[in-house]
Fold these 3 entries.
Entry 1:
Amino acid sequence: MPILGYDAIEFYVGNARQAAHYYRTAFGFDVTAYAGPEHGIRDRCSYVLEQGGIRFVVTGGLGPDSPIVRHQATHGDGVKDVAFLVPNAEEAFAVAVQRGAQALAEPYVDEDDHGKIVRASITAYGDTIHTFVDRSNYSGVYAPGYHPTNHQVPAEATGLQFVDHVVCNVELGQMDRWAKYYADIMGFTQLHHFDDEAIATDYTALMSKVLWDGDGRIKLPINEPAAGKKKSQIEEYLDFYGSAGVQHMALATDDIVETVRRMRANGVRFLSTPATYYEDLRERLDWTTIDADLDTLQELGVLVDQDDEGYLLQIFTKAVQDRPTVFYEVIERHGSRGFGVGNFKALFEAIERDQAERGNL
């Protein structure tokens, strides 16, 4: 199935205007388009946010009977749609359904003076969906019904470039099912598999499989909880989200130091890393092949991992809403196609410290 990349990631939120403001001021996204009652749309407000090649859409419902409002009441602010850009939405939908996907929305066409967009949707894990989008014949700001937000002051970008991967959490025993789903429906293959020995601390563990399109444009890690002495981060997510769903998105940058500095200055909170982690790094990694200053990385809390293909730098935010569900990763890759396996223990211990503060460990 030819997938060109992520088209947009749409969130259902409690207050779209305030969510848009947060992503603009904290993450540096420009608010580029809007659709709502002022344009004849009676049931929702949607804001389109863009930075580099990343496009988010934040949508809020306008009444208690709205499925958007019900989704937000059940899950909190969270990802509803991980949409894929395709050369032909009708064909992608037909192939997916033929291979066993459950249809949600048959192919439909939206048109205005800027051309037409073709979209179709299938269901995925939990209440999440995937929409196939063909915008090859459209030149408008986002889609018909959306209008430019020329009144918005341009944001100060933080250097985020594109979506590196989208991670989902599923219930115990469901990881293999969803890995098979993406293999069967999308034709994805397994890039990595991490068992509970690789991803564990003294208290919690999880298992993960990474599915990808073979080109690196789409990477979808799938996590499930594993047995441990205490409640894992996956179990905490499932408890508060109420079902399987998107746990975090990794956003790529080509200068993680500058990006993290700007995001911190904007009020974004990141997980903390103890000094002992950096003391270990000095001995564990080959610093002759890493173009980064360890003291600066320690100052900012950036993690480092290295493999046969190169290295990567990464850092994780705290949850960005009241429920301990969705968070973000900022990542800078230098050859490595990995996911920071060498950092798993330090990362999960940091998450556990936050869980303990919330009383959920």
Note: The radius of gyration is 20 Å.
Entry 2:
Amino acid sequence: MTRAAPAARGFQAETIEARIREYESFGIHRTGWEGDDRTSAWLRDTLRAAGVEAELERFAFPRVEVRRARLTWSDRTVDGVPLHDGGFTDQGGLEGELCDADADDVFGKIAIAASAFNGDRTWTGPEAHERYVALAGRGAIGLVIPTGDVDGAIVLRNAEQINRPTTLPVLQVALRDARALASALFVGGEGTLEVDGERLRSRATNVVAALPGSDADARPVGVMTPKSGWFTCAAERGGGIAIWIALAEALAAMQDRRRPVLFVASSGHELHHYGLLDYFKRRPDAASGAVAWLHLGASIGARHPAARMGASDEPLHAIATEALAHAGVSGFEAMPPGAPGGGEAREVHTRGGRFVSFLGGHRYFHSPSDTVDRAVDAERVAGWAAAAHEIISGMLALPE
């Protein structure tokens, strides 16, 4: 039987959708960009209005500035987005013969990930960085990867190796813009790859807060959500952000809460969790010192989701599974206890902390088409929000 959702306004679908639309309205949410900074100020002010003394915490990160990123061949040019953990060319680019990246001889050539035209996702998957390094070792001077959502718009890969980037310039191009490349590979020819950019030191902000509990010696509960990403990220980040706000409001209004509660909305998600790593660097005991963390990760309540739930151990897995059932949430994969999956829960896991994690993907994941109208289901988000509220209640009741 579905249990009634919390009555507080923040858990209602109308409020959730309005908040996700406001988040979307700030524009592109890449780390340190204007949209990311505006999100930080909005979250701080929203929590303060609820009685939660949130603050902005600045951290340094490697910001990629791109002047031009494109491939030109014959009489065609396609613009793209370089991997932020890839290399750069000089201004004017590099000229070379176009070849299939799976060819035996790639030396001195611009490699095209031709298998990506047929749905091969290994060029952007977890193992992809090793493929880039191997191509560079075989003498390729650049790599072009066609990527696309269901409509052919570009889909970007996170910069998991931002602190040790490959020297190989790698250009991601929209599948719908790059189909002519297949013909160019068939007939042969040369092209010019230009990835004119640089990696600069810049600053971004996390939003952090701590609610005190009645027992100063009690271990805290942590609630975290990423707030940055490649584009407007309405479904990727919006659900987690709306639930994070609702939980902060509800916990601030709770009169009999014994445990403290830590909140962090982190930037740097697409850059190997740069912001959360800074948060834990400043607080070395926070990951393992909390009784448990709730990670509000990607694509919570998205349309056409590939939703997952993970937990660090059997007791938390049981709490989460029961809460999701009570809230009427279905259609998700429950990962085995102990599996953090992707996302920021990994950072709690590697530091010996306990967690429950909501995460996943959806049809427009990492695409500029990830908007409220295309990708968000506010009623579905509300179901996950109700489950999150019950999970937090269970965490607050955990023994020391």
Note: DSSP finds eleven helices and 14 strands in the chain.
Entry 3:
Amino acid sequence: MTAQNMPERAMVLAAGRGERLRPLTDSLPKPLVAVAGRALLDRTLDRLVEAGIGEAVVNLHHLGEKIRTHLAPRRDLRIHFSEEDTLLETGGGLRKALPHFQGRPFFALNGDVLWQDAGQAALTRLAETFEGARMDGLLLLQPVADAIGYDGAGDFERQSDGRLVRRARSAAPFVFTGVQLLHPRLFESAPEGRFSLNLLYDRALAKGRLFGCVHDGAWYHIGTPAGLALVEEKFQG
């Protein structure tokens, strides 16, 4: 896939409760939390618009009407809402929205992700790197050492050809940023209802079909009120 074949559609995962940011998220969906005066969800949708993506699906559950109302004024892309009466988690939420993507690769982004590009836009880099014949998923990764506000052990190791493996030691060099390009093939034989996308990642890993692209800019992790304060201090944009 090249930039000329940029996916036309994307999904933004915005249904979660943001438990670790309570009490802020008791009354405000985490994707509507603002950094430098602009909601995280708007910043994510801005990136889609910049990449030329014309349609996005946003899933709703926790305080979903607030997200719907917040996005009502936007006219720069067409937004579809995927309502979840029961929270379906990442895998179930994406599976429910699959018909919107018409069997074509699509971007999937967490609604609370925040990143900056140092050079070429991350979404363009993903599109140029993606090869649908051998990839079921291409994840944008950040080196743990450069992840602002993140204190975890990392998620993946990356082989020389870009294939991913789960960490084999106590820590892994890369953390998943919440930005990815997926082929609908990843969801073949996926269960119905609530499940984590990690279930499908593990299947793709076993087949050697889950790949990673290393981000070349800044990435910010917002998990707690203290983390939010740190990001507010560090973020420039």
Note: The chain has one domain: 3-234.
